[in-house]
Design a protein that fits this description.
Helices cover 10% and strands 47% of the residues. By secondary structure, the protein is mainly beta. The chain has a six-stranded mixed β-barrel. The chain binds the ligand COCCCC[C@@](O)(c1ccccc1-c1ccccc1)[C@@H]1CCCN(C(=O)[C@H]2C[C@@H](N)[C@@H](O)C2)C1. Ligand RX0 is lined by residues 19-20, 36, 38, 40-41, 83-86, 118-119, 121-122, 127, 224, 226-228, 315. The ligand COCCCC[C@@](O)(c1ccccc1-c1ccccc1)[C@@H]1CCCN(C(=O)[C@H]2C[C@@H](N)[C@@H](O)C2)C1 is lined by residues 19-20, 36, 38, 40-41, 83-86, 118-119, 121-122, 127, 224, 226-228, 315.
Length: 338
Amino acid sequence: DDPTNGTAPTPLTNYLDTQYFGEISIGSPAQMFNVVFDTGSANLWVPSQSCSPFSTACFTHNRYDGSRSRTHIDNGTGFSIQYASGTVRGFLSEDVVVIGGIPVVQVFAEATALSAMPFIFAKFDGVLGMGYPNVAIDGITPVFDGIMSQHILKEEVFSVYYSRDPQHSPGGELVLGGTDPDYYTGTFNYVATEEMGKWEVTMKGVSVGDRIMFCVEGCTAVIDTGSSYITGPASSVSELMTTIGAQLDESGYKVNCELVKTLPSVTFHLGGQEYELSHEDYILWQTELEGDVCTVTFRGLDVPPPTGPIWILGANFIARYYTEFDRENNRIGFATAV
Ligand SMILES: COCCCC[C@@](O)(c1ccccc1-c1ccccc1)[C@@H]1CCCN(C(=O)[C@H]2C[C@@H](N)[C@@H](O)C2)C1
């Protein structure tokens, strides 16, 4: 019988509130990798032993060596995935992946070329997509679908807790098969996923203070565990930043740390609920040598139609609202994180 009653927790590391990742193993004997569990994509890739020595980003991370795994199965099909920023190229392999103690025979990509930007800044090795199968490149069955087909989970859901300060331990937790009451209070409010096969919902508006300023006619919100920030259409975010008196510099929007406590809340209307983020939730306060730097964790990002225009609610939103991704009922649940 299953000691974890059909749920499988994986502790996550929180790097500076901007990168959250957890450990999986691939192969026999186990080769360990840190991966981002990303609801915005649906493929698994890790750096390959055969990556080119010129790919710095590959060389500075853990690499999978198929020749050292007795359960490795050759595939060799070419693979390439394009992110909003950064490209990963390689080839497919198959092996036993263990996530939260659950083994699953999985087709994944061995990355032989990783764009230096942004992967040289990655504290993790690879990405494990938690998206729906129809988002998966090459029609590869995603890891979570492989686990669901084993019928060992109490519920066909997974939940994500992201801590809000890097010193907190654990930095977060992914639970396969259920939720972890240690990390939320109150009840869940659910929103149906808008388009079958994507972790996105209809949003009914974005308010600053008590004024609905954006998405007034309704828009799409992607709930994305693989995004550090909240992104919105560039024009909307620019107007929002002007309203709160933030300036854009080369590394994002900044505000004067003295003014942070006077900043208005930003509220996202999802389902029948209003999800408020206060300045504590959306300002990243970093104490540097030359003084404190206060970064607004919003970014402008114009996603072209038909996908866009969209808002992407990332780690800073999830850190405030514990999130359950429900594949059984095609819905997303939010509860107040502790
Ligand atoms: C919460 O932890 C998030 C992990 C960090 C994500 C990220 O901040 C990052 C930082 C440093 C190095 C690499 C990557 C990174 C890059 C690509 C994939 C995964 C991680 C990404 C930076 C670029 C924009 N962005 C996405 O498009 C992301 C959006 C998401 N859906 C992915 O598909 C790509 C987030």
